[in-house]
Structures are given as C-alpha cells and as structure tokens.
Write a structure and sequence with these properties.
globular, signal
Length: about 100
C-alpha cells in the first residue's frame, strides 16, 4: 500500500513538473549522486494564488512534501522557495532553474 501511495505522489509531481503553463518556477539540485527538486505550483495560472512549494527526492524512496503554501500573499511561495534553494546551495548543493533550459 505504501508503494502504491508513493507511486501516486511521484506520478502527480511528474505531471506538475512536466512543461506546462501551470507552474512558475522549478529547480533541480545535485550533490554527489543525490538529486532534489523544488517546484512552485500555481493551479490557477496566471493567478499567483493559491500556490504550493513542493520538495522531492526523486532518487530515494521518500514521499514528496509540500513545504509551504499560500492563499493570501502573492510572493510567499517564491520567496520561501528561493530561500530554500539558497540554503541548499550553502550546504554544497548545485542548483539550477529548470525554467532556463
């Protein structure tokens, strides 16, 4: 049952991360053989609210997490995601925006 739930989350986030107009920013971070993804999701694009910041560890058997979400502050998700990316980079992770590719 846990495996099925994990696969459902992976499928959901794969759909969210796939190129579309329904997200503002996403990043991929690498450290040694590990990968992390950070995604800001706006379900009502072009509206910036509501928003959610998702964090995934695609190479590990870890459920994706929602780190932050907002319904009232336009800049909250982007601000928190960028702070988190800076924290990862300060710990040695190499992060790049997926939107630049």
């Amino acid at each position: 049952m846990k495996y099925l739930a994990y696969n459902s989350w992976v499928l959901l986030l794969t759909i969210l991360i796939a190129p579309s107009d329904s997200f503002a920013n996403s990043w991929t971070c690498h450290y040694a053989e590990l990968t992390r993804n950070v995604l800001i999701f706006h379900p009502n694009e072009p509206a910036t609210l509501p928003c959610k910041v998702y964090y995934t560890k695609p190479d590990e058997n870890v459920m994706p997490r929602t780190l932050w979400n907002a319904e009232n502050d336009d800049d909250y998700c982007e601000r928190k995601a960028i702070e988190f990316i800076k924290t990862l980079e300060s710990r040695g992770w190499q992060c790049s925006s997926d939107n630049d590719q």
